[in-house]
């Protein structure tokens, strides 16, 4: 008996786009199936990514729904890309569990990343020593080689920040996270100074949410919003928990996270004051 098919987040968003195409064309499921001489079940399975999505199916649906050629071809290419393996697959599931691989795949395609991680520095901005120190007390215990390999992954992700097509990163960090001596004073000081350095790049903005300011929007939650240049693809929210990682993909739910990030940005210090505070905290670790 073949293994049950399990779609990754990239195929799920392609399926959602195909459903949008059908709705825009004004076709019911059964009507579209009749035009293509498919079963209604096939349309449903493709739209819900319950079976592999083939490039030829995307083209056929695009033609039946009278989708403009450039939009049709873009989704066809996205379908082909979703089946390709990237550098992250070389690390295996012992280093990157499947949800993390999905995230890195999406991040590699994203043009913007907005992160609010209350208690630590977002992964794409972490130094190697900080990342290793974070992993050390994790359960189940991880050997040093695996921790180093995970740190390598972060370094490769960070190459997007200075590439020809740089990723735009907006990060909000709660002040107590910067004062937590992860890996010791030297490691934390180096990490904060790295944040200050990155904030000097046009495509990176790190803001500090100050301690002592009372309740803030989304308190108790951490999340990352990935945005894409292709207007036909919606933003995706990534939420990491102790036992698993979740993707928020429905537009109304994504909008809630987007509004919350905007409200957090208003509560955070501006860039100049954020840098001043980070410098003071780093100096405190150095003394």
What average pLDDT do the residues reach? Answer: 86
Using the CA coordinates, give the radius of gyration. Answer: 21 Å
Protein structure class: alpha/beta
Number of helices: 13
The count of strands amounts to 6
> Strand share of the residues?
5-15%
Describe the structure.
- The chain has helices at residues 9-25, 29-36, 40-47, 55-64, 69-83, 92-95, 98-109, 128-135, 144-158, 175-179, 185-199, 251-267, 271-286, and strands at 112-116, 168-174, 204-209, 223-227, 236-240, 245-248.
- A hairpin with an 8-residue loop joins strand 4 (223-227) and strand 5.
- Residues 87-97 have low confidence and may be disordered.
- The protein has 13 helices and 6 strands.
- The chain has 287 residues and is α/β, with parallel strands linked by helices.
- 52% of the residues lie in helices and 11% in strands.
- A 6-stranded mixed sheet has the order 3-2-1-4-5-6, with helices on both faces.
- It is elongated and about 75 Å long.
Keywords:
single chain; 287 residues; alpha/beta; 6-stranded mixed beta sheet; 13 helices; elongated
Summarize the structure.
The chain is of the alpha/beta class and 287 residues long. Helix content is 52%, strand content 11%.
């Amino acid at each position: 008996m073949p293994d049950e098919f399990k779609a990754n987040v990239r195929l799920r968003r392609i399926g959602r786009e195909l459903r949008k195409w059908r709705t825009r064309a004004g076709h019911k499921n059964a009507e579209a199936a009749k035009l293509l001489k498919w079963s209604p079940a096939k349309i449903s399975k493709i739209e819900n990514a319950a079976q592999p999505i083939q490039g030829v199916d995307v083209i056929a649906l695009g033609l039946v729904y009278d989708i403009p050629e450039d939009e049709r071809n873009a989704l066809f290419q996205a379908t082909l890309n979703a089946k390709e393996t990237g550098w992250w697959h070389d690390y295996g599931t012992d280093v990157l569990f499947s949800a993390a691989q999905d995230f890195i795949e999406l991040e590699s395609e994203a043009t913007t990343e907005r992160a609010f991680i209350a208690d630590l520095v977002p992964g794409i901005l972490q130094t190697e020593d900080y990342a290793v120190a974070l992993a050390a007390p994790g359960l189940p215990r991880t050997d040093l080689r695996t921790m180093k390999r995970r740190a390598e992954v972060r370094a490769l992700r960070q190459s997007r920040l200075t590439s020809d097509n740089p990723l735009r990163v907006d990060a909000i960090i709660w002040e107590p996270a910067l004062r937590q001596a992860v890996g010791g004073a030297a490691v934390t000081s180096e990490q904060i100074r790295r944040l200050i350095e990155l904030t000097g790049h046009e495509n990176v903005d790190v803001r500090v949410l100050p301690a002592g300011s009372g309740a803030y929007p989304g308190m108790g939650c951490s999340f990352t919003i990935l945005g894409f240049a292709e207007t036909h693809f919606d933003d995706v929210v990534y939420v990491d928990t102790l036992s698993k990682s979740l993707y928020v993909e429905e537009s109304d739910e994504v909008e809630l996270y987007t509004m919350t990030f905007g409200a957090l940005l208003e509560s955070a210090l501006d860039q100049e004051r954020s840098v001043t505070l980070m410098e003071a905290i780093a100096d405190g670790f150095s003394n």
